[in-house]
């Protein structure tokens, strides 16, 4: 059994570079394999976490050539005609769902998609049922992986999803750019738009109107792609800095896509003032963020359209709420139940074990913040990277620290995470 013990920290004053974005790196890898055969592209500042390595394995199994230069954080991909394959996406829900859309349009070829234990527990019907409206032939195992795809000729369709999910949207758009005619996708709230931005950057016309995105048959002209820093990873040190007395942090090259920056909206609302410096406008904008400890932050309520803009940051925002005196409320977050683990249960159990007063609701939680956590316990991440990292930050801010079981899963999204705690 692997464990790590995080002791309470007294001092935190650092300048770091943001880890590269997991969602965008995975998309750049997958989209490259759909570009016309022989297209060679270089992805710089790529995240080389486990989910991205799984994507690389998948595109190689589909026929592409991929070279990884770890020291330069660089991936070179040369596309090839897509061939039938058996794929293993590891822990990556993004890879699984985007590949379902990409491959269901590969007429005449067959694919089997599988992943780890966590992936085998996540719902895939939400993607296959919508793709089937376009003519896709997909069979699941009790609504989950194994996913078997028989590539077909797809027909452009107006698709409506009851869930605001960028993974579902991306699957439909990737099918749509290979389907006959026009495909539109409508979601209840706007989810992250990395696919739309990257497709446009690669020359694909994408129309966006309110919560509807429209594409038609197009060729992806992949080109060299620089990846910005991941706000979801950066949220962990940001919370540590605002909640620890006299702490301060500067994080360079953080992605500032408004569809991902719900955490910064919460920071503004609670009085955790931050500075953004050196902002660069690009297909994905980025800049440096500076923040320091602030006394007397206000409790917060999150609900509705902000949820997709901070969905992956809810575990660490729940930790922050414990260090703010007063009642914070998280609603409309039932999607957390079907992430890498049931994150509603995992967060409530973790914070309760650490001495926090937290009540689980059907779609979120209520946190009665006292301004401190006791800690002094052992918490199992159950293999969920964001639970491991949220627990570590909670432990560092607590009175007695925490021991985390199954901590290595941080390498899915933030392999250098534990370096944050080095003096
Ligand atoms: C992701 C979208 C989100 C997020 C996940 C990554 C993506 O999932 O939770 O970690 O890369 O598109 P949903 O689209 O299912 O909300």
How do you describe this structure in short?
The protein has 423 residues and is α/β, with parallel strands linked by helices. The chain has eleven helices and 23 strands. Helices cover 28% and strands 26% of the residues.
Give the strand order, joined by hyphens, for the main sheet: 2-15-17-16
Structural class: alpha/beta
The number of distinct β-strands equals 23
As a whole number of angstroms, the C-alpha radius of gyration is 21 Å
Architecture blueprint of SSEs:
Blueprint: E1 3-6, E2 13-17, H1 22-32, E3 40-44, H2 50-61, E4 65-69, E5 74-78, E6 85-88, H3 93-104, E7 110-114, H4 125-132, E8 137-141, E9 144-150, E10 158-160, H5 166-176, E11 182-186, H6 194-201, E12 207-209, E13 212-216, E14 225-226, H7 231-243, E15 248-255, H8 262-270, E16 274-280, E17 286-292, E18 301-302, H9 314-322, E19 326-330, H10 343-353, E20 358-361, E21 364-369, E22 377-380, H11 385-397, E23 402-405
Parallel strand pairs: 2-15, 3-14, 6-7, 10-11, 18-19, 22-23
Antiparallel strand pairs: 1-23, 3-5, 4-5, 7-9, 8-9, 11-13, 12-13, 15-17, 16-17, 19-21, 20-21
Helix pairs in contact: 1-2, 1-3, 1-6, 3-5, 4-5, 7-9, 7-11, 9-10, 9-11, 10-11
The chain binds shikimate-3-phosphate (S3P).
């Amino acid at each position: 059994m692997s464990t790590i013990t995080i002791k309470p920290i007294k001092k935190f004053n650092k300048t770091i570079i943001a880890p590269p974005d997991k969602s965008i790196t995975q998309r750049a890898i997958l989209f490259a394999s759909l570009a016309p055969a022989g297209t060679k592209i270089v992805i710089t500042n790529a995240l080389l976490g486990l989910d991205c390595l799984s994507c690389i394995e998948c595109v190689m199994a589909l026929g592409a050539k991929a070279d990884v230069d770890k020291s330069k954080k660089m991936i070179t991909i040369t596309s090839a005609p897509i061939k039938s394959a058996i794929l293993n996406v590891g822990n990556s829900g993004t890879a699984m769902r985007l590949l379902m859309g990409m491959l269901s349009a590969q007429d005449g070829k067959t694919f089997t998609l599988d992943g780890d234990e966590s992936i085998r527990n996540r719902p895939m019907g939400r993607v296959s049922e919508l793709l089937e409206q376009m003519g896709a032939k997909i069979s699941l195992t009790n609504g989950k992986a194994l996913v078997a795809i028989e590539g077909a000729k797809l027909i452009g369709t107006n698709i409506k999803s009851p869930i605001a999910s960028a993974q579902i949207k991306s699957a439909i758009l990737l099918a749509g750019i290979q389907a006959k005619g026009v495909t539109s996708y409508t979601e209840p709230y706007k989810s992250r738009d990395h696919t739309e931005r990257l497709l446009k950057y690669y020359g694909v016309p994408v129309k966006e109107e309110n919560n509807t995105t429209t594409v038609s048959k197009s060729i992806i002209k992949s080109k060299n792609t620089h990846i910005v820093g991941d706000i979801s990873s950066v949220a962990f040190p940001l919370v540590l800095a605002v909640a620890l007395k006299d702490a301060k942090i500067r994080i360079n090259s953080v992605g500032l896509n408004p569809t991902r920056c719900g955490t910064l909206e919460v920071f503004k609302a609670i009085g955790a003032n931050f500075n953004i410096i050196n902002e660069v406008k690009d297909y994905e904008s980025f800049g440096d963020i500076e923040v320091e400890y602030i006394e007397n932050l206000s409790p917060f309520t999150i609900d509705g359209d902000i949820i997709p803009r901070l969905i992956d940051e809810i575990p660490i925002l729940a930790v922050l709420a414990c260090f703010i005196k007063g009642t914070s409320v998280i609603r409309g977050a039932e999607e957390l139940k079907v992430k890498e683990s049931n994150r509603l249960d995992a967060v409530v159990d973790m914070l309760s074990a650490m001495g926090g007063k937290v009540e689980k609701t059907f779609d979120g939680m209520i946190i009665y913040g006292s301004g401190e956590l006791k800690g002094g316990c052992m918490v199992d991440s159950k293999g969920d990277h964001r639970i491991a990292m949220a627990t570590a930050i909670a432990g560092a801010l607590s009175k007695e620290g925490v021991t985390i079981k199954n901590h290595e899963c941080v390498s899915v999204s933030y392999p250098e995470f534990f370096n944050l705690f080095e003096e």
